[in-house]
Design a protein that fits this description.
This protein is an alpha/beta fold. It is built from 13 helices and 8 strands. It has an 8-stranded mixed beta sheet. Helix 4 links the parallel strand 2 and strand 3. It is globular, with a radius of gyration of 19 Å.
Length: about 350
């Protein structure tokens, strides 16, 4: 596991502009938009805005190897109460169905609970993207009960059902803490058949491959976690590692950047395009600025506009059919079965 964030290491890759330079200049693969033209696909546009995904900050209790946010304990970017209120005002629009909270560890934002309670009153589905270990951290042990009381859906990262692979990506001891957190969530009803409390696990490859078949992997997770720890969950989703931030750094260090980009491009699947998350989501950074997705956010590629858009100026009708900003990293979402916040999009 990375001991320090790229920012704390003073790495050039902490700057999104350097990441974009590498993606655009070092890759020998065709441009993403050119691939669309070659496949005679129409330009990529949003079709709705059903989900407001808010990055509450880059502060996290972990420093995971593949984190595309470059989050960690040494990050201080955090969304303010004022910006949280501006997000809630936008969430009042009837087009929104879901509030998707991410980070960093979103639970470490001091306004997390207030945001959840307010969104619950609006009748929105609420998702907490949790690293699990935060639920055991000092000062946060009451979170599992709070999330259950508010009927918050938990989407939790567990890179593998094996300890060795999980700890290799997330740090020594992360696996055991994750299992303890899952057992606590199960005791509250999360992931139990028939329960309304949904618990989704997230797999992303430890190495440089694409995710395996999602349904087959879910069966393996379900079998292994049940046999080993009596842990249950609602479902599992797979997400492709995006060639940005810390994973990009690892690709370069291992001299496998071009190999990985070639793998993504060769696995381009036109059938994934209709289900891409950017077509129905609006992403908000910790300062309140708007993006087509969380990955664009980390590369500082804001929504297409004459001026930079902020959540305080949210206009549903103006954004609902916007042109999506794309780049070479987008091949990660269209490779194989596809990759989105909801996992695989279609059979490969």
């Amino acid at each position: 596991m990375a001991s320090l964030t790229l920012l704390r290491q003073h790495s050039k890759l902490a700057d999104p502009r350097e990441q974009l330079r590498i993606l655009n200049e070092r890759s020998q693969q065709p441009a993403f938009e050119a691939q669309f033209q070659n496949q005679q696909l129409p330009g990529l546009h949003a079709t709705s805005i059903e989900t407001l995904q808010i990055n509450l900050g880059k502060l996290c209790n972990m420093t995971c190897e593949h984190c595309h946010v470059d989050a960690g304990p040494d990050r201080r970017e955090i969304m303010t109460a004022e910006t949280v209120q501006e997000c809630l005002q936008a969430l009042e629009h009837s087009g929104f169905q879901t509030l998707d909270l991410t980070g960093g560890a979103p639970e470490m934002n001091p306004h997390f609970k207030d945001l959840v309670i307010a969104a619950r009153k609006l009748g929105r589905r609420i998702i907490d993207r949790s690293n699990l270990t935060i639920l055991l951290a000092p000062g946060f042990q009451d979170l599992p009960q709070f999330l259950a009381d508010q009927n918050v859906e938990i989407i939790a990262s567990l890179p593998c059902y094996l300890q060795e692979n999980t700890d290799a990506q997330r740090g020594d001891g992360a696996y055991q803490k994750s299992i303890q957190a899952l057992q606590k969530l199960n005791s509250l009803g999360y992931g139990i058949p028939g329960s309304e409390l949904k618990l989704t696990l997230v797999y992303n490859p430890v190495g440089f491959s694409l995710p395996p078949n999602q349904s087959e992997l879910e069966a393996a997770y379900r079998r292994e976690l049940k046999q080993r720890f009596e842990v249950q969950f609602t479902n599992l989703i797979t997400i492709t590692n995006m060639p940005i931030s810390r994973f990009l750094s690892e690709l370069i260090q291992q001299e496998r950047f071009e190999e990985y980009m070639e793998r993504l491009v060769n696995a381009f699947n036109p059938a994934t395009v209709s289900g891409l998350m950017c077509r129905s989501i609006l992403s908000v950074d910790w300062q309140g600025f708007l993006y087509d997705c969380d990955f664009n956010q980390m590369l500082n590629l804001p929504v297409a506009a004459l001026k930079r858009r902020h959540i305080r100026d949210f206009d549903y009708d103006d954004l609902v059919s916007r042109k999506i900003v794309t780049g070479q990293h987008c091949f990660g979402c269209t490779a194989g079965a596809g990759s989105s916040c909801g996992g695989a999009i279609t059979p490969p």
